[in-house]
């Protein structure tokens, strides 16, 4: 990749939320800021204040509630184009599918090098939306091959764009659809597990959460309260299983039409065995050596579901959708549900409880911790 090395030109990070950049690219931004000027472009939300403490933040007004509206994408693209034209960065790194589409178009028109990072393929990773996903990926790749070199003059560029994927599934889909130069496509497996989890395990006795004959006391949900992340399925499980306790950790995403609302949560709080805890740092640490399981009923195209990785290292059993596997985790480490029915998850919970007495259960936990 060719990068303009002018010292007074910054590196720009782009995402469709300040929350994403601060929570998932915090370390990268800080590292780059040690030697380079760094600017973050993202919509204003509750994490903007924290993001502004590690980089210069410039608001990028875009709508996530109308994510599939072509007019909304066009307006967001115009805003991004003028921001990048004014900033003149040496490199742009973008994250998430919609932001990648917009940045790819703008960087093509401005001739800017960019790195497009795909943190999962989102709601489009759905058999009913395959054609739309393929079209978007092809369009991103096409704009990545073309750059403007003068007024109404364009040329092909082989080295201006790199593509990063967090799992082999998404990388394989992109390669099948676009047939890119292999040197442009990189696989970097997610964000992994924070070191505090490794240290926690080192400082605590490593033992099974469940012993022979013990019962599963309840379930845990960790993540944004999005319907595509399976929060409605989790709530329905709690409704149908009043004998167990269910905990929800995560916040509302007001910028997304897919999110629960405050009114929804007030209504769901009436369910006696369901507890909403909001955003809590590292909530799974509270469940180490407790008789609870993580439930991840996501129908979203995940990059690397961090809550699953954290649960595995803590020895917390996991029941999840096949989408949540992301072709990273093996079904030998956890229990998968093939459909989207809450009763199917409840059936798996009861089956798992019966398997606590058998070696098969302990083998799952062992494989997960080793992974």
Compact summary:
This protein is α/β, with parallel strands linked by helices.
Q: Which secondary-structure class do the elements indicate?
A: alpha/beta
Mean pLDDT, to the nearest integer, reads 85
Helix content: 25-40%
> Helix segment count?
13
Q: How big a fraction of the residues is strand?
A: 15-25%
Radius of gyration: 22 Å
- Which blocks of ≥5 consecutive residues have pLDDT under 50? none
Which assembly state applies to the chains in this document? single chain
Order of helices and strands: EHHEHEHEHEHEEEHEHEHEHEEHEEHH
Biggest sheet strand order reads: 3-2-1-4-5-8-9
Shape: elongated
How many strand units? 15
Measured between the Cα atoms of the first and last residue, the distance is 33 Å
């Amino acid at each position: 990749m060719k990068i303009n090395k002018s010292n007074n030109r910054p590196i720009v990070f782009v995402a469709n939320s300040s929350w994403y950049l601060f929570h998932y690219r915090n370390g990268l931004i800080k590292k780059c800021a040690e030697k380079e000027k760094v600017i973050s472009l993202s919509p204003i939300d509750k994490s903007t204040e924290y993001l502004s403490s590690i980089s210069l933040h410039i608001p990028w007004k875009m709508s996530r509630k109308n994510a599939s509206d072509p007019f909304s994408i066009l307006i967001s693209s115009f805003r991004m184009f003028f921001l990048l034209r004014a900033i003149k960065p040496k490199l742009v790194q973008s994250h998430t599918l919609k932001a990648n589409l917009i940045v790819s178009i703008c960087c093509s028109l401005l001739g800017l090098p960019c790195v497009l990072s795909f943190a999962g393929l989102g709601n489009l990773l759905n058999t009913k939306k395959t054609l739309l996903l393929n079209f978007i990926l092809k369009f991103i790749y096409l704009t990545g091959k073309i750059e403007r070199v003068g007024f109404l003059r364009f040329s092909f560029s082989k080295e201006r764009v790199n593509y990063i994927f967090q799992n082999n599934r998404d990388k394989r889909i992109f390669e099948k659809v676009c047939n890119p130069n292999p040197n442009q496509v990189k696989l970097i497996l997610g964000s992994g597990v924070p070191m505090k989890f490794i240290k926690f395990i080192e400082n605590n006795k490593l033992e099974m959460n469940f012993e022979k004959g013990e019962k599963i006391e309840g379930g845990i949900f960790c993540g944004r309260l999005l319907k595509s992340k399976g929060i409605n399925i989790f709530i329905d499980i709690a409704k149908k299983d009043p004998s167990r306790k269910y905990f929800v950790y995560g916040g509302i995403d007001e910028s997304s039409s897919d999110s629960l609302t405050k009114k929804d949560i007030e209504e769901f709080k009436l369910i006696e065995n369901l507890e909403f805890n909001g955003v809590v740092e590292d909530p799974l640490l509270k469940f180490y050596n407790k008789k609870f399981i993580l439930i991840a009923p996501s129908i979203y195209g995940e990059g690397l579901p961090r809550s699953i990785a954290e649960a595995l290292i803590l020895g917390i059993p996991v029941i999840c959708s096949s989408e949540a596997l992301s072709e990273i985790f093996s079904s030998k480490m956890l229990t998968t549900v093939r459909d989207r029915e809450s009763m199917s998850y409840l059936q798996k919970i009861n089956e798992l409880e019966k398997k606590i007495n058998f070696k098969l259960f302990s083998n799952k936990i062992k494989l997960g911790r080793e992974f």
